[in-house]
């Protein structure tokens, strides 16, 4: 495995340097309050959110493949983290942070292991449909959990509403939404955070019962391995959570990177990206913070500001470094309600009602998959939701591949063009010749469908068939069960005096049929380059 360095940053064009600087400044202004909000979801100290914009972001910029993907704290993985560690340690405690570091290392190990053995394709097993449902569920979960903080209540919805906290929350939400409506480039969250810190100091809101963050550490994070009670039992206990994070990182980061690579017609290497994401999470674990992920929202922030390379992210990290060294002091006076309001809006933004409606209109069967995923996340848990999401994605895939949309091919007598008809309308191309297209890979689950349709077509054909051709243009693989079924079909058709021939068989499938000894059974002359050759061969044989 080779390391590729600075694929996402080089070459740097002088003409675009100013845009990269502006994009880096914009990302810092928008992302700093956002990642501080993610710490409330993750259950970690506020300062750890800033740490995700430091070493992890730089490591991905150096070793990642995408020129656009922004890697830092993310709502989905933060929610999985909190769900997985909640039963093991008190949120925000030293033990909790140590376990968060262990999870980041485990996820990094899975990402790099996936690169070594070529498991990058697993990103494709979390469909867009279930990702919409999963993130919508996370959005409901996050927004609901932050409502008490906006009202000055405890997390258990106990106590009396503090109207100062409520007023702060309303003002923060108003500033952020107002700024977005006027221009998405205005850092509304940063303006709200800075403004409320100033108000808190000037009017001494703490004296009015408003809870504030308290002292925020100044300086660089502690570098070193997580101070956790390492053991095999601990690793096994946390493996489901780490695997859930691994799947979300794989799917969300790959989808975002691919989208922007396609938009700008740029190369993108998924294997290199796995290494970059893995090293970024190792950096997170070693710098006292929590797991990081590719963020679609932050990536769009940079793109909208004109950033086109990872240089923007490196500039953001330099700004965060300055904040950590010189400007953490005022954060102590920030009301907790400010972050609760910021996170509440993040949760609402994750609720993709428009996406759910689009799925319902265009693919109703997949809408129910997305809805089930959302309900599981909200009512049962985030970890369970990602597992259900994967299972439902696979079930949906198997259901469609099991019920292939196979067809019969014939010629339109008016236009002389090929027509595709349902299997229930078995028109013959020429008397005695029927062309049947199997529209999927031939494997154990759909082999019976192939058997029933081919034998049914042969039995019901009028006039009786002499040749039945299988158009294999959509067949990418034949497994052992499928090969045995083909052997049975050949035997039954031969007994009925029907010759089984093939067209459009790609080379890898032909090699498989050779290995299964199907080619020898049917004969080399049973395989044709295309369906036109089949028709020509049949014509010459029958003297049409």
How many distinct helices? Answer: 21
What is the share of helical residues?
A: 55-70%
Please give the radius of gyration in angstroms: 29 Å
Q: Kindly estimate the percentage of residues that lie in beta strands according to DSSP.
A: 5-15%
Q: Major beta sheet, specifics?
A: 6 strands, mixed
Task: Indicate the structural class.
Answer: alpha/beta
Describe the 3D structure:
The protein has 544 residues and is an alpha/beta fold. It contains 21 helices and eight strands. The strands form two sheets. Strands 4-3-5-6-7-8 form a six-stranded mixed β-sheet. Strands 1-2 form a two-stranded antiparallel ribbon. β3 and β4 (418-422) form a beta hairpin. α1 crosses α13 and α5 packs across α9 (232-263). The radius of gyration is 29 Å and the shape is elongated. The termini are far apart.
Structural key phrases:
alpha/beta, 8 strands, elongated, six-stranded mixed β-sheet, 544 residues
Give the SSE layout:
Layout: H1 17-42, H2 47-51, H3 55-63, E1 70-72, H4 75-85, H5 94-117, H6 128-151, H7 163-182, H8 188-203, H9 232-263, H10 270-286, E2 293-295, H11 296-304, H12 311-326, H13 336-350, H14 353-362, H15 364-379, H16 382-402, E3 407-411, E4 418-422, E5 433-437, H17 447-460, E6 467-471, H18 480-495, E7 499-503, H19 507-515, H20 518-522, E8 527-528, H21 531-542
